[in-house]
Structures are given as C-alpha cells and as structure tokens.
Amino acid sequence: MVLDSLSSGVQKAVDRIRGTTLVDKKTIKEACKEIQKALLQSDADVELVFDLTESIKTRALGEDPSKGLTQKEHVINIVYDELVKFLGKDEAQIPLKKSKILLMGTFGAGKTTTAGKIARFYKNRGLKPAIIACDTYREAAYDQLKQIGKSIEVPVYGDPDEEDSAKVLKDAMEEVEEEVIIVDSSGRDALNEDMVEEINALNRILEPDERFIVIPADMGQQAGKQARRFQEELDITGVVVTKMDSTAKGGGAISACAATGATIKFIGTGEDMKDLEKYDPERFVSQLIGYGDLQGLLERVDEDQAEEQVKRMMEGEFTLEDFQDQMKQVQSMGSLDEVMGKIPGINKSKLPDGLIDIQEEKMERFNYIIDSMTPAERKDPKLINPSRKKRIAHGSGTDTKDVSELIKLYRQSKKAMKMFKGGRGGLRGNLQKMMKQFGGL
User: Fold this and answer.
1) How confident is the model at residue 203 (pLDDT cuts 50, 70, 90)?
2) With the C-alpha atoms ordered 180, 181, 185, 190, is the resulting torsion angle positive or negative?
3) By CB distance 3.0 to 4.6 Å, which of 33, 238, 243, 403 could disulfide with 216?
4) Domain total for the chain?
5) Residue, of 66 and 416, whose pLDDT is higher
6) Domain that includes residue 430, residue range
7) Residue 45: which CATH number?
C-alpha cells in the first residue's frame, strides 16, 4: 500500500494497545508518541499532530467503552475516529453523470497523467469520457495526452500548433460529443497572475461542474498553502493528491489539504493508469491502522474480472492452480505487497519472510514450473517427491531449488490465509466483527 512508513508507525501504536494487559495512562501516552512520530515523519503540521494526539488522550482516558466493546477495542476505535477527522472526515462524492471537469495546478504536479486516470475512472463506470489538451505552455503536452488517450481508448481533442488555450477549448467544444469532458490546463512554477487569467478564461468557456487542483504529495504540509491559494483565487471544488507512492510526505499533504477545508477527491497511488483511488478517509485510515481495504481490493478485482480467485485467496482454501491464478491476478492488480495491505486482518510485518517479495521474473519462473506439473500434482502438492521435483524442474527449464521454493511459498501463503480465516466465525464472522467494531466501515 501507499505510505508504508506512516502505516507502520500507526500500526505500532495500535499493536501497543492490543498487546497490553491494561490500557492505562502510560500505554495511551506511549501509543500517542508512536502516532506523533509517524505523522511528523510524513511532514504533517506539528501543531495539528499534537492537537490530534491530545484529543486521543482526552477521549481514551475520559470516555467509557460503548456496549459490546472491550477497553482495548474502545481505545483503538478512538484512534481510528480521530485519524479520520485528521485526514479529512468526508468521503469524496463523485457523481457518475454527464460532467465537465477542469484540471489545474503548478508545473510538474501530474495534471496530464491525472487527466488520463480520471478519464479511465469514468470509462470503467460506464460513461464516455473525452480529454481536451489545453496545456499550450509545456512542450509535448499534447503528444503525451494523445499517447495516454490511445492507451485507455479515450479520444483526445486539441491543436498542438495553437498557442491560445482558450481558442483550443472553444474549437474542441464544438466537436466533442462525449458525456464527461476533462480539460488539462497549463501549469506554471507558481500560481501567478497569468495562470489565474488563463484558468478563468477556460472556466468561462467550459462552465465546469468541477474545478480540481492537482497537488503532488511530495509537497508535504506545503500542499495546504497551495490548496488555500487556489481556493481563494480560482474557487476550486476539489483536490487530487498525486505521487502518493513515491514519497513519505503523503500523510502531511493529505492532512494539510484537509485542514484548509478543501475536499480531496482522488489520490494517485502509482504511475499506471489504474492507480487512482476515490478518496475515502475511513478506508484510508483502515489501511493505516492495519484493517485493510477490502472494498478497494474488490473494486480492483472487479476491474480485472477476477473476483472469484481473490475470494478464494481470502478463504485460504486453494490449490497450486489457484496459487498460479493469484500470481497472474497480482501481476494485473499491483504488487502482492499492495494486495496484502488491502486485506483486513493481515499484518504484513508478521507474514513469513519472502511471501510478499515475489518479483516479476520469479513469478514467470513459478508459472513455468506449475505448467510442468501434472493436474494431480497441481491439486495435491504433497505428491511431489524428489524424483517428481527433478522431472518438473527439467520440464520447466529450472532447478529443483526453484521447485522447492515455489512449494514453500505456496504453503506459507495457504497458512497465512488460514490465519486470516481462522478464529471463531471464520472469514465472514471476522469481517462482521470488524465492521461492527468500526461502525460499519
């Protein structure tokens, strides 16, 4: 998942609460120190962080547990609630209807890539999007958008030879027939008078339903200042935070934007066109705290038409054929590390060594090995004795050590999924308990 360092710090705080026999003042103080450390390292505002942890302390020491919750669950629930408030409170509302969206932001924020990601977001939900290339300031911006449009099969309108962005938009609006229009505007090194004038001109022509500012996460707490300036000058309706995968400052950027009252609509979590998530602070905090993002995972699964395979993965009952299917799904959904981070109840730090460190090349090798097995061996790996290992290795062009490693990782994976499934009530019971504990996440 994104923000691994922040998540690790928050989970240390939660684990400290879980691991104590008595949730006393000392335990709460130590847990708050872990949260402070994690947030400050992500470049969150010092004053806001201390306000957050003070609220956690006050509530944890002053409130009685709700009916049905233990003291530990009650305190963890408080941590969850306060982090949600800190990181935005409200889930982004993205109406799936005919819309016009104007993107703005400084140079290098990732507007052009974001335009493609948002187009794909709407397309995957049954609407017909189009992108208009109005960045006439940056060289090759039009060509980049055309390549993006081709990759996601979305039309791109514009004129690479025209320097007047307002004229580009006027001409394009006479041609475009799609339901969702996304306009990529020019960026600058800073918000200045020329940029404000240009955006206002585009705004008058387009009459957009949404005006999104695109802000890179590596700005940290400075993102709040930029969001505030764009709000004051251009009346933005939402924020898209990009580059969440490449910086430790993402928590600072999100909290800073939330503190200004700006609504965060999307977060960009990678370079691929599919790496865009509608921002939901409850789901985001669920990941930070170690309760995963089951809904987000299943949304990814739906996109790749593989829901049944991932359900089997979470049930912990699968053969080597299923394991092979899962490796293929991981290659299309993201890294195994990312997928594990979205499954509720799985603490990645406690998984067996090597389980989530399967690289692309190794996955390919494992696929060849499984393909070289008989149907009976794929269904029951216990049949694979030393002589069969030699035959499988020879048939797949690998070594017997590779076959042994595959079987070991398969068994570890199966064991890890059983750990998740285990306990009274199984998978369904564990999820229902989690949903109840956190107010129906």
Assistant:
1) very high
2) negative
3) 243
4) 3
5) 66
6) 310-437
7) 1.20.120.140
